[in-house]
Design a protein that fits this description.
about 150 residues, alpha/beta, D-tyrosyl-trna(Tyr) Deacylase, Chain: A, 6-stranded mixed beta sheet
Length: about 150
Amino acid sequence: MRACIQRVTEASVTVNDEVVGQIGKGLLVLVGIGRLDGPEEVKWMAERIAGLRVFNDEQGKMNLSLADVGGAMLVVSQFTLLADCRKGRRPSLGEAASPMLAEALYLAFTQFVREAGIEVATGKFREHMMVSLVNDGPVTLWIDTTEKA
């Protein structure tokens, strides 16, 4: 499971000219589910991201979490995060989970985040989405469950 996390002042997802998910201050999380991922990876990732201390405290140090600042999370499914671009010119998506598995784990991820007390907005699974954001910092992080310690 891979996630690209961006600290934002605002972010939204539009599908067919309709805003389907929107947040103010918080994190935009692009999530890619792999074919070997399961509930353990999803729970670990949700807890990891929800607890990241990437917001500035009074001294300007990144020392506060999403909950500390009352922020929200916009979660967008993005299977292309699993793309392998090492060979040829067209990305291979063989490591991405099947749509059925990916959707179930994506929903589980959002539920774990909600259970952590974080407000969650989402895109629409398997839809063409337009994602808008104002990256704050910019702060952009990458987490992969295959690299967890």
